[in-house]
């Protein structure tokens, strides 16, 4: 991975491997002396007193929260490595236009594989119509038009994905 990257955004559906890849990248960046911090979408949700839902409006607000945190972290000369579903292309493109050094990694993965990895138990109930506001089921995930890197994590294990991201 070539710097001067000012922020790394890993996007994809739930269970596509975003957090796993982000953790590996942060570990390696730190080995190389790069000050960095992992901003995981789920962990960021827990920071704020005002809890957001999972509907489209709440997801947009969550993305904005994470973008604001990433801006603040960057201003402090720390590289944010962001792991977030970030389903809307408009949000991704707006941030890309505003921030030089934005690097986007899109993790694509087929629904069958996602269902086998689904430790949050999102997909099966959503596919049965018992759960709402699941990105990839009843909320569209808009495929990134211009990711800097796209990885199919149904075909790559975590170490292979990391190796391709680190290059």
Report what the structure shows:
The protein is of the alpha/beta class and 167 residues long. The protein is built from 7 helices and 5 strands; from the N terminus they run βαβααβαβααβα. The chain has helices at 18-31, 41-47, 56-75, 89-98, 111-117, 123-127, 158-166, and strands at residues 7-12, 36-40, 79-83, 102-108, 149-152. It has a 5-stranded parallel sheet, with helices on both faces. Helix 1 (18-31) packs across helix 7 (158-166). The protein is globular and about 45 Å long. The chain starts with 6 loop residues before the first strand and ends with a helix. The mean pLDDT is 95.
Q: Report the count of strand segments.
A: 5
Major sheet attributes: 5 strands, parallel
Helix fraction by DSSP (H/I, runs of at least 4): 40-55%
Shape: globular
Class inferred from helices and paired strands = alpha/beta
Q: Could you give the order of the helices and strands?
A: EHEHHEHEHHEH
Strands side by side in the biggest sheet: 2-3-1-4-5
The Cα radius of gyration reads: 15 Å
| Ends distance | 5 Å
Could you name the key traits of this structure?
single chain; 167 residues; alpha/beta; 7 helices; 43% helix
């Amino acid at each position: 991975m070539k710097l001067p990257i000012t922020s790394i955004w890993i996007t994809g559906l739930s269970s596509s491997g975003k957090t796993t890849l982000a953790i590996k990248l942060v570990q390696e960046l730190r080995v190389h002396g790069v000050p960095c911090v992992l901003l995981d979408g789920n962990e960021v949700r827990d920071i704020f007193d005002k809890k957001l839902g999972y509907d489209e409006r709440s997801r947009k607000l969550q993305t904005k929260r994470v973008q604001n945190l990433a801006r603040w972290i960057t201003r402090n000369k720390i590289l944010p490595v962001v792991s977030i579903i970030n389903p809307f292309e408009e949000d991704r493109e707006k941030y890309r236009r505003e921030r030089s050094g934005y690097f986007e990694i899109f993790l694509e993965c087929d629904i069958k594989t996602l269902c086998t990895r689904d430790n949050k138990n999102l997909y099966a109930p959503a596919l049965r119509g018992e759960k709402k506001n699941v990105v990839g089921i009843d909320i569209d995930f808009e495929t990134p038009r211009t990711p800097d890197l796209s990885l199919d994590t149904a075909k790559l294990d975590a170490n292979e994905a990391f190796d391709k991201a680190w290059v």
